[in-house]
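hiii so um. not sure if this is the right channel but i have a protein structure encoded as tokens and i wanna go backwards to a sequence. like what aa goes where. can anyone help
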């Protein structure tokens, strides 16, 4: 069974055990399904879209599914095999005299075991980790084919003398990923030679390191990505050999979950009123593509800056001023000299109102805002407020134990206009 077979085998196990396949990824259910289907056929995948967060997570998730396979099912390779080929091929060649099997044995194993007519082959169980069954490449112009293909180091050969020594035959990304997953972020940013080197390997399931005539078998799952703006840079011959999966931006509700999860992962000791997180997502989406593109990463960064702003001022909870600081810092930070004026115009004209947002999400807040109109500041307004009103608002906001503090923060957003 090849790598794609192991992958689908593990997926089916997970399904039958009621385990979620990619539990940490929100909102792109149909994409997950397509990704699994395409990889299961052995084809490489090209994920397309301005999707911001999902793509790296997806490739990590695919890797951990495959890692789960190797943990549960023993697969053996010949000791020291640079591509983790299944020992069964060498066994079939030596013991069953199956001549065709030698095609699946790499030159290093042929030299070490097959040619020397070894009677016992030392084997080791395959477990995959980063660098050994998982490799990533960040696409850019400067990636040379030997980064992908590996290289036969002639200088070291002169020193060491053994052409099969791992120091002489330097592994590239294909060898590192063999048996597992190769992830290429922004495939279109790689030069044509590098793109070809990849595709040839995927097509023929073998590769030849630079300066070498040795051909190595390779078996892996290939996942690449491109932003819509770089799509045209992917060579046609390359694109034709991959299955494209368009990924639309996550729904607002899922983007909100993504942002919440990212904040939680940062482990900052600061409370974030839920409706402020929602407001950030909703503002970023509302302002997207007016002057510039604002993706889910902008929501995540704006929320992060809001947390930092609260921490800097020694507050335990993010205020609306922190939120506005986060949004303005992130959005103006995305601009360039040319878009500077346009962005400022957009922020003064189109920036959504927090008060309208709060009233819309929790209509009963309007009654609380009336207290501020009477008493001037949020603190006094809150002290004069009916407990029942506070309970009603709390009930209207699905919250996490900090509700009273959160309600004060919403009231404060109404009372204070935060100039930036
Ligand atoms: Zn080998």
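sure thing!! here u go:
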């Amino acid at each position: 069974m090849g790598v794609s077979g192991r992958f689908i085998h593990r997926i089916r196990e997970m399904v039958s055990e009621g385990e979620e396949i990619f539990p940490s990824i929100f909102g792109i259910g149909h994409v997950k399904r397509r990704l699994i289907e395409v990889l299961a056929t052995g084809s490489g995948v090209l994920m397309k879209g301005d999707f911001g967060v999902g793509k790296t997570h997806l490739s990590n998730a695919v890797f951990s599914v495959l890692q789960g396979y190797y943990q549960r099912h023993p697969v053996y390779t010949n000791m020291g095999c640079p591509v983790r080929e299944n020992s069964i091929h060498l066994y079939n060649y030596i013991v069953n005299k199956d001549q065709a099997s030698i095609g699946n044995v790499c030159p290093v194993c042929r030299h070490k075991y097959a040619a020397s007519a070894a009677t016992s082959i030392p084997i080791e169980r395959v477990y995959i980790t980063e660098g050994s069954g998982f490799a990533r490449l960040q696409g850019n112009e400067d990636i040379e084919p030997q980064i992908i293909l590996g290289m036969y180091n002639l200088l070291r050969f002169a020193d060491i003398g053994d052409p099969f020594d791992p120091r002489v035959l330097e592994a590239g990304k294909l060898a590192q990923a063999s048996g597992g997953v190769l992830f290429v972020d922004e495939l279109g940013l790689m030069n044509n030679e590098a793109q070809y080197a990849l595709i040839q390997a995927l097509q023929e399931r073998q590769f030849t390191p630079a300066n070498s005539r040795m051909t190595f078998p390779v078996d892996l799952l290939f996942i690449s990505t491109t932003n819509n703006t770089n799509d045209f840079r992917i060579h046609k011959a390359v694109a034709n050999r991959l299955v494209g999966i368009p990924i639309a931006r996550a729904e607002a509700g899922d983007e909100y979950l993504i942002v919440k999860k990212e904040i939680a992962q940062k482990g900052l000791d600061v409370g974030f009123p839920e409706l402020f997180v929602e407001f950030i997502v909703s503002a970023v989406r509302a302002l997207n593509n007016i002057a510039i593109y604002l993706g889910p990463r902008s929501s995540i960064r704006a929320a992060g800056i809001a947390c930092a702003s609260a921490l800097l001022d020694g507050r335990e909870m993010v205020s609306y001023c922190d939120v506005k600081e986060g949004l303005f810092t992130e959005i103006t930070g995305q601009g360039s000299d040319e878009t500077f004026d346009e962005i400022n115009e957009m922020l003064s004209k189109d920036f959504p109102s927090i008060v309208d947002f709060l009233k819309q999400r929790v209509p009963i807040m309007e009654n609380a805002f009336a207290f501020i109109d009477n008493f001037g500041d949020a603190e006094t307004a809150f002290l004069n407020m009916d407990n029942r009103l506070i309970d009603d608002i709390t009930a209207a906001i699905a919250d996490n134990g900090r509700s009273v503090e959160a309600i004060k923060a919403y009231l404060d957003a109404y009372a204070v206009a935060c100039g930036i």
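oh and The chain has a mean pLDDT of 89.
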